[in-house]
Design goal:
It is built from 3 helices and 41 strands. It is mainly beta and about 500 residues long. Among the domains are: about 45 residues, no CATH class; about 170 residues, no CATH class. The chain has a 24-stranded parallel beta sheet that branches. Strands 4-5-6-8-10-13-16-19-22-25-28-31-34-37-40 form a 15-stranded mixed beta sheet. Strands 1-2 form a two-stranded antiparallel ribbon. The longest helix is centred in the N-terminal third of the chain and has 26 residues. The termini are far apart. The N terminus is likely disordered.
Length: about 500
């Protein structure tokens, strides 16, 4: 009897155990994983397996970094396919190393890196061309020297980006722009340290290619030296390089800028046959612009007008040219455009046949307004200090406000007015301006160039004016202080006020 009871109890225990196991399986919370099964799965799938797909289902896809992720669901070492597992782990390690490289690349571009990563935050790199492409909304710091390579930077179409140049040196020997703004790009450059960007002097590309349709702002406490061939050092490019020649919207409010252009282009503004675009120089910027033959220092390239140029704030601007282009204004054959000076210090020296401020060779002064600042303008041989180039009239010249102006012509042009063979145009001086004007041989102090009339001259308000006509010579007669040049009519002159 006792043995039968013990046997019944044993069967009861077994039945309870089976019932418990059934209950656990049937009513376990959804998604709960058996610990033993999890351990087995972990052994079959080493660390680094695809984080997106089920290991046994993934046969490769592209992750958020743009890197191929390979299936790592490979049997652990010791199985039949242990060798394949080792290869899979190597793939995983490569993948993780690439991610780490991208993370460490960050927002910095090191131009001295001969083997840059394929991408960083806000940029990509194409090793076949050596081109860094800056993407929309990027904030990138560029350092180092490209060391004789052709590594360079392009900003994507329509991208709005911030670039800090920190001791960057990008100099090319092939016909590319070292820093290229694609159509619609809007770029803010902050200068730190000493930076150089240069395209080949004997070729056609711009240094910083910022053509019509783009916007470029430069500020900071550093220095930038920009040089070019037949494209502008900063602005439009050369047509032979397939670049838009007109300058874009260029604003400089800080830093020390030295811009030096090659043949036929402006230092800042248009490339060959390109207008100057819109150029604003202000703030605390210190700018030295050296124009080439035929292009202005600041303004139009060869055969082109100056565009729209404004100088103000506490900027210090020195602009010089050698032949046929104005220091500030038009290139060879281009009028001065619209030039406005509201403040700062301006020293301008025009090339032979060109005005210091105004027109290039055979071109008028444009529309010139000086209402503040300290301006020293010396026209080249046959060009006015302020006004027209050789054979160019003075255009429309207004000097007012608190402006302090000293102007002269080397020979045959008026100090303020027409170049040699050009009439004075329309000249107005007023406010509390202080003006000293000395004409070149045969040119008026204020008015006409050699053999031309004074135009329309109005002096009023509290302006203080001292005008001296150019002296005569064995061949040329003298000119009026205010009025006509040698053999030129006086024009219409009105003087009033208390100055």
């Amino acid at each position: 009897m006792k043995k039968a009871a013990d046997k019944s109890l044993a069967w009861l225990v077994i039945l309870c155990m089976l019932a418990s196991m059934f209950f656990i399986v049937a009513f376990a919370p959804e998604g709960q994983e058996d610990p033993e099964e999890a351990k087995e799965t972990e052994e079959l799938n080493p660390v680094g397996h695809c984080p997106v797909c089920e290991p046994e289902e993934c046969d490769g896809h592209i992750d958020d970094f743009g890197i191929s992720v390979l299936n790592s669901g490979i049997p652990a070492p010791g199985g039949e396919e242990g060798a394949e597992d080792t290869a899979g782990n190597e793939e995983n390690q490569t993948y993780l190393a690439e991610i780490e490289a991208l993370a460490s690349a960050g927002t910095g571009i090191d131009m001295s890196d001969a083997n840059p990563p394929a991408a960083g935050t806000g940029w990509t790199y194409e090793s076949a061309t050596g081109v860094y492409t800056i993407l929309h909304n990027a904030d990138v710091t560029v350092t180092g020297s490209n060391g004789g390579s052709q590594r360079r930077i392009i900003v994507n179409n329509g991208a709005v980006v911030a670039i800090t140049l920190n001791n960057a040196y990008i100099v090319l020997s092939e016909d590319f722009a070292p820093l290229w703004l694609n159509a619609g790009a809007n770029v803010t450059i902050t200068l730190m340290g000493d930076n150089t960007i240069a395209s080949p002097a004997n070729l056609y590309s711009a240094g910083i290619y910022a053509p019509a349709g783009t916007s470029l702002q430069i500020s900071g406490d550093g220095k930038l030296t920009a040089k070019s061939g037949c494209g502008a050092a900063i602005g439009g490019g050369g047509p032979e390089a397939g670049q838009v020649t007109g300058g874009g919207n260029i604003t400089i409010t800080g830093g020390t800028i030295e811009a030096d252009s090659g043949f036929n282009s402006a230092a800042i503004g248009g490339g060959w046959r390109g207008t100057g675009g819109t150029i604003n120089i202000g703030g605390t910027a210190v700018v030295t612009a050296i124009g080439s033959n035929n292009g202005a220092a600041i303004g139009g390239g060869g055969d082109s007008a100056g565009g729209n140029i404004t100088i103000g704030g506490s900027a210090a601007v020195t602009a010089k040219n050698a032949l046929n282009g104005a220091a500030i204004g038009g290139g060879n054959g281009g009028d001065g455009g619209t030039i406005t000076i509201t403040g700062g210090t301006v020293i301008a020296e025009g090339g032979t046949n060109s005005a210091a401020i105004g027109g290039g060779y055979s071109s008028a002064g444009g529309n010139i307004t000086i209402s503040g600042g300290n301006v020293d303008a010396t026209g080249g041989n046959a060009g006015a200090g302020i006004g027209g180039g050789y054979n160019g009239g003075g255009g429309t010249i207004n000097i007012s406000g608190t402006a302090i102006v000293k102007a002269k012509s080397e020979e045959f042009g008026a100090a303020i007015g027409g170049g040699s063979g050009g009439d004075g145009g329309s000249i107005t001086i007023g406010g509390t301006a202080s003006v000293e004007a000395t004409g070149g041989i045969g040119g008026a102090g204020i008015g006409g160039g050699d053999q031309k009339s004074g135009g329309t001259i109005t002096i009023s308000g509290s302006a203080v004016v001292r005008a001296t006509g150019g002296a005569g010579s064995d061949e040329f007669g003298g000119a009026a202080g205010i009025g006509g040049g040698n053999c030129g009519a006086g024009g219409k002159i009105t003087i009033s006020g208390t100055g």
